[in-house]
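Revision sheet: structure tokens.
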Amino acid sequence: MAFIYYVTQIQFDFGAIQLLKQECSRVGITRPLVVTDPGVRAAGVLQKALDNLAGMPVTVFDQTPSNPTEAAVRAAAAMYKAQGCDGLIAVGGGSAIDCAKGVAIAATHDGPLTHYATIEGGPVRITDRAAPLIAVPTTSGTGSEVARGAIIIVDDHRKLGFHSWHIVPKGAICDPELTLGLPPKLTAATGMDAIAHCMETFMSAAFNPPADGIALDGLARGWQHIARATQNGADREARLNLMSASMQGAMAFQKGLGCVHSLSHSLGGVDPRLHHGTLNAMFLPAVVTFNASAGSVRAERRLERMAVAMGLGSADDIPLAIKDMNARLGLPAGLAEMGVESAWFDRIIQGALADHCHKTNPREASAEQYREMLKVSL
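Predicted:
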């Protein structure tokens, strides 16, 4: 049975950050813990948020790692409780927002964080006690500001998903102005993350026509504007459309993702230094090729429809077009350039087969098929 649910109230425009205090009032947050990272603070973006919270008692946790960890969640949750906070504001990319979602659970629920992981049966254990969250994205990639999930590396080094409608942000401040200073490589990597979300969710076999429409429009916006945003970070039109593509990809992926993310999540657990969006960009060509023979993809001409959105002549052009785009954006040509070794394949495959995205790919992959995808992506 299809379940279609959209819940986040979104403020989307240049200057939307000015509405942050208003959103706190609407949600009922009076003593927020702001979750961010050192880079966002150093770039001055955190201060823009704090300036718009003047007069409120605010506590800041600014030690979110590039891939959020259970240890960081514990530290922030302890701060949340010690300061008597009653809500969360995440300012940053997907890492800060996902870390804040982890805090929303850990600060209000008992037991280890792994108890609430999706593959451990955790979603039913996450209740409406979860702390309310407002998300302020500063990159255009994960779309976590409108999503029900978070990806966190737990203490045993697995990179796990946590999913519940109770941790969806109550509000999102999508202000493209906050992304104008994003460096080119991060713009490219996070932008390809958004494009991967749009493509994977559109290929998923689940029935959700609204998600399909949102994903296809997001793909068109992202594909048309990612190079412009990367080459000229001050291009306001490109930044706006890329942020929209990011938001749309996450609105759509309630339908499910697939092998790109199964592999990226697993490999990101093996080596947490690797950027998730860049990994998605590396795996997309192989997974699109693998999915081309899926019955639902063929029956609904999904690759052909993606090709039209991307301005390509044929569905067969998609894998090479992605590789060419990666090259234009200055991303690696393959996993080997990122330091990935074939000796890691067994661990990556084990994690991919257990990942929550594995079953929602339109064609279920075997261990050997995952190995082949890794080989051609290396």
